[in-house]
Request: fold
Amino acid sequence: MAEMNVVLFGAGTMGRNHARIISSSPRANLVGIVDPFEKNGRAATDQFGGDWFPAAEEALKKADAVVVAASTEYHYDIAREILDAGVPVLIEKPICPSLEQTEEILGMAEKRGVPVQCGFLERYNAGVVAARQLIEDPVYVRAERHSPFWSRIKTGVSWDMLVHDADLISNLFGAQTPEKVSAELGFFHPESVEGAEDVIDMTLRFPGGGIASASASRIGQRKVRRLTVQSLGAMVEVDLLLRSVTKYKHSNIEVTDGSAGFRQMTEMEVPEVSGPEPLAAQFEHFADLVAGKIDMDEERRSILPAHRIIASALEQQ
Reply:
């Protein structure tokens, strides 16, 4: 299979993770990293290969595809330049830190016929992939995503963290747009950028009656990534950090020995979960998208529901 020449934007923490994946993929050749800071850019290229570029113009001439892992606040301008060059792009979530900018970028991609993928990494979590095979007709979903504070993140927790769970929840309910979105936001940390929320609790109601709740916090003292999906006949829990899945099914069994009452029993199913690292699985999906094996219109449309949910939640601050 022919290699595609990939340019990476951003040599920070997430950028280096992408560089590791790209440089180790048999389907890609990391031709360079664009970063305005030479020290960061050259350190990354020394480790993972390719050339350092201080700006996009020369790098895009050598690219068959681009991965954007720069800070969220720069996504809009970077994405416009890439789409103007007609190069397929994988952009770390969110596409942009506003629904209007995201819709504009996706509109540009549609007009130019350029494939775009959003870095919804949890879609490729092996625990999530395994859980989907066990879930039938969800009626209530609960997601928790908590972390300690990290001052380098400038956006609030909704765009930085909760957008992952908005994507998972929307997909569990058939990629529907919720009928109602309610949210409570908290602003607590003195180092947070003004207007950037540190905590959010969100509730969603979907057509057909399904409901979901999700919380994100960056003032937690440990990382929590948990998803619970309840159906009428079973409950599935996913630990997204451990990539583990447990299915519970409760039964009431009528006592037949002459005494009154019922005996209760809960069955537990713990499937063996295996699969590639989520970032590697996500890049494999991107390679298929660039190769035309995945419908670019369907991929593009799948990006909007989560962005719309987060925008609706933030309107209530």
In short: The longest strand covers residues 244-254. The radius of gyration is 21 Å. The chain has two domains: 4-122+279-294, 123-275+309-314. The domain at 123-275+309-314 is CATH 3.30.360.10 (Dihydrodipicolinate Reductase; domain 2).
